[in-house]
Specification:
- This protein is of the alpha+beta class and 451 residues long.
- It has twelve helices and 22 strands.
- The protein folds into two domains: 222 residues, P-loop containing nucleotide triphosphate hydrolases (Rossmann fold, 3-Layer(aba) Sandwich); 153 residues, OB fold (Dihydrolipoamide Acetyltransferase, E2P), CATH 2.40.50.140.
- The protein starts with 12 loop residues before the first helix and ends in a 12-residue tail after the last helix.
- It binds adenosine-5'-diphosphate and magnesium ion.
- The site of adenosine-5'-diphosphate has 10 residues, from helix 2.
């Protein structure tokens, strides 16, 4: 195919847009054979494993994706996101497990027979074709009548706001415009499922934000289910209905952006999503759930003392906490982690006697328009980050460098996580000195972009 750019060999969108509907494909087994699959599930992954040679890249992936859902696979580079997309698209076969798409078992079904399309980071447009011809390509392959192709291409280009560029060649378009053509080409056939592998990561920041909201709008208007891959947690939070956080070929947590951010399942997710402050705390008392004689349940709680406060004079930080999910195994003397986001922290005068807290000093303070973001070094050297809403009525709302402060938080705003071992090696040490924050992009208190 002389029109084909080289990278099309690995970017099969143009041939794949020819996918017939699943109902026309032979040798399939209906999803009703699968126990307990709800009707609203479009894609079901059960027990998916993938190994290359002896190396396991995906381990026991299970996931149901609903019709019309925007699901994001989020995780650091090399965790298996692209591999999972390639299995769904049919470019690779799983070592174990099954993929069902709209009731159809996909095993053995080649990529071009699946009602799935893929948008890649590299746009892979045909350089010798115009924008309109690129978008029309899949319909032409399907031998759709000319008139219909014209109408559908026009409508599609309107949807991605490219009508005025219909006769341009790809090389005369900006990166964002090229990506819009690639997306238009991938959705013009209305696939049931669109896979997007880091489609925005080549764009600059401002364009990326714009394309994020355009993609969301397009997804809503078309009603197509999206599986979107990114390593950018902000992008994942702002776009997704649900996020599956991945690490080393496994799902760490699947949940809504709010669930993932507010109640991370483990330290990895806590650190990967958003900015974190982690405080070690010692368990001083465990009071499990109790049912009284009338059958009323009293939620259990644990009592902890923040370790850093133990070396401090004055009131220590002893907190009653809702019993965390893992409390069954918790005993007095254990160490747990309290997760607090920068916006959860409250900063007081150091001699404020109304609030127990941790003493420290402000080593950096940045006015961000709506918030004042401060970096505070606690007495033991632990560096934390606080973000306070800017108070227009308080003209003195700012900190001097080295100003002494007391850091506290509202009881109940902390999220308790077990000490799963990773904190000692890769969280606490990272945040112990300010230099580390500047030099280590994976530090516990700065934005992470683990590409
Ligand atoms: P991600 O998209 O999350 O960055 P990938 O799915 O591309 O990760 O890769 C996951 C792991 O699988 C990596 O360690 C990668 O080297 C390995 N891998 C991917 N494709 C192949 C292949 N064809 N052969 C061998 N190893 C592979
Ligand atoms: Mg990848």
């Amino acid at each position: 195919m002389t029109d084909s750019p080289e990278n099309l060999q690995t970017a099969p969108a143009p041939t794949n847009v020819n996918a017939p509907t699943a109902s026309s494909t032979p040798s399939i087994s209906p999803i009703s054979n699968v126990d307990g699959v709800p009707d609203d599930v479009l894609l079901k992954l059960t027990g998916i494993k993938k190994s290359y040679d002896q190396t396991e890249v995906l381990a026991d992936i299970n996931l149901n994706i609903k019709h019309g859902e925007f699901l994001t696979l989020l995780g650091p580079s090399g965790c298996g996101k692209t591999t999972l997309l390639r299995l769904i698209a049919g470019f690779e076969q799983p070592t174990a497990g099954a993929i069902y798409l709209d009731g159809v078992q996909m095993a053995g079904l080649p990529a071009d027979k699946r009602p799935v399309n893929t948008v890649f980071q590299q746009y892979a447009l045909f350089p010798h074709m115009t924008v309109a011809q690129n978008v029309a390509y899949g319909l032409k392959l399907k031998k759709v009548p000319k008139d219909e192709i014209q109408t559908r291409v026009r409508d599609m280009l309107a949807m991605v706001q490219l009508e005025h560029l219909a006769n341009r060649k790809p090389q005369d378009l900006s990166g964002g415009q090229q990506q819009r053509v690639a997306i238009a080409r991938a959705v013009i056939n209305r696939p049931k499922l669109l896979l997007l592998d880091e489609p925005l990561s080549a764009l600059d920041y401002k364009l990326r934000l714009q394309m994020q909201s355009e993609l969301k709008r397009l997804q809503r208007e078309l009603g197509i289910t999206f599986v979107f891959v990114t390593h950018d947690q902000e992008e994942a939070l702002s776009m997704s209905d649900r996020i599956a956080v991945m690490k080393d070929g496994t799902f760490q947590q699947i949940g809504t952006p709010i669930e993932i951010y507010e109640t991370p399942a483990n330290l990895f997710t806590a650190r990967f999503i958003g900015e974190t402050n982690l405080f070690k705390a010692e368990v001083k008392g465990v009071y499990p759930d109790q049912t009284d004689r009338d059958g009323r349940l009293t939620n259990g709680r644990i009592e902890v003392e923040v370790c850093e406060a133990q070396a401090q004079e004055g009131p220590t930080t002893l907190r009653n906490l809702r019993c965390p999910d893992f409390a069954n195994g918790v005993k007095v003397g254990d160490i747990v982690n309290l997760l607090l986001r920068p916006e959860d922290l409250r900063i007081y005068e150091p001699d404020d006697n109304n609030h127990a807290g941790l003493l420290g000093r402000v080593i950096e303070s940045n006015y961000k328009g709506s918030t004042l973001d401060s970096i505070i070094e606690l007495h033991n050297g632990h560096i934390i980050k606080a973000s306070e809403f800017f108070d227009e009525d308080d003209p003195s709302f700012d900190y001097k460098l080295n100003e002494a402060v007391k850091v506290s938080w509202v009881d109940g705003w902390e999220w308790v996580l077990p000490n799963d071992g990773s904190i000692d090696s890769d969280v606490h040490d990272d945040v112990n000195t300010h230099d580390d924050i500047n030099s280590n992009p994976n530090s516990g208190t700065v934005q992470k972009d683990m590409s």
